[in-house]
Amino acid sequence: MRIGIHVGHWEGQPHDLVALAVEAERAGMDSVWTSETWGSDALLTLTWIAAHTQRIGLGTGVVQMPGRTPASAAMAALTLDHLSGGRLRLGLGVSGPQVAEGWHGVAFDHPLARTREYVAIVRGVLRRDEPVTAEGPHYPLPLPGGSGRALKTNVRPIRPAVPIFLAAMGPRNVALAAEIAEGWIPFLYSPEKAAIFDDAIDRGRRAAGLDRGPLDIAPMVPVAIGEDVDECRDRLRPLLALYAGGMGSRSANFYHALVSRYGYGDAADAIRDAFLDGRRAEATALVPDAMIDELCLVGPKGAVRDRLDAWRAAGVTTLLAKVDQVDTIRTLAEAAA
Fold first, then answer.
1. Per-chain mean pLDDT for the chain
2. Which of 257, 248, 181, 261 has its CA nearest to residue 213?
3. Pairing of strands 31-34, 63-64
4. Which residues of 135-157 are buried (b: 16+ CB within 10 A; e: fewer)?
5. What b/e readout covers 25-48, taking b as 16+ CB neighbours within 10 angstroms?
6. How far is CA 299 from CA 47, 219, 225, 236, 244, in A?
7. What is this structure's pTM?
């Protein structure tokens, strides 16, 4: 099992993601990944990291598909792959209705069909074997009724295929990731409950045919390491409350549905109701210790070392440790050694 770090995105003010990436490279970790919401840009922060590192893999976890056309994402991937010497892994996600419609002004509909079209166009650009065309209906190329013609990128990619990862949680989305992507990025992934995804993954791999290699299962895992396990849990509790309670509406929240499938339905309902009613401190306090222990890496270094075995046993191939401190990276590297 490879271990990378997920440094996220800026919150409120810019902060130094490079120091985390440099330490991860020094410690021999596999990769460093960035993200975006409605502030800093995942590809730009990753480019800055690329300029300050030499060997470590570079991933987006994830780029929001509603925020860029497929050709735009492919151009950015082609450019960053060149600038980094072929180190890029392109993580993509459909985001959710709040970001797609409220921020980018793009309809959040037909996410599976949109994802399939998007990935096909990105791959077509990077192959550079012919002008890129697509029937649509979501991303038709060239635009029907327009005057433009199909184009082939005027820059030769450093390699004909950048590994594509998809963020996915629901069964159909996970199946699609297993079918068309090299990797899958889940969040709030339980190694004890990993079997709930098996049918979707198997369905996707069968649809892909026998020519596809193994799927890189790369969950993003929150990490807090320290001798005081209660203090470590409290550092992660607001994050789990946000996702289980606030990433959606009362009727639609991928993460609420997921932790409910894990057996935390009553707690998830209470967290959601408190969070959406504006009682965020109460929502945070309602996150059970057991949920944190199951979905995160938390506590003393020895406990984290032992806990890593559960992720290995679940078939995780790249664990993306969500970290924000250099000391945590050092300690995690020691625990994983």
1. 96
2. 181
3. unpaired
4. eeebbebeeeeeeeeeeebeeeb
5. bebebbbbbbbbeeebbbbebbbe
6. 33, 19, 5, 11, 22
7. 0.96
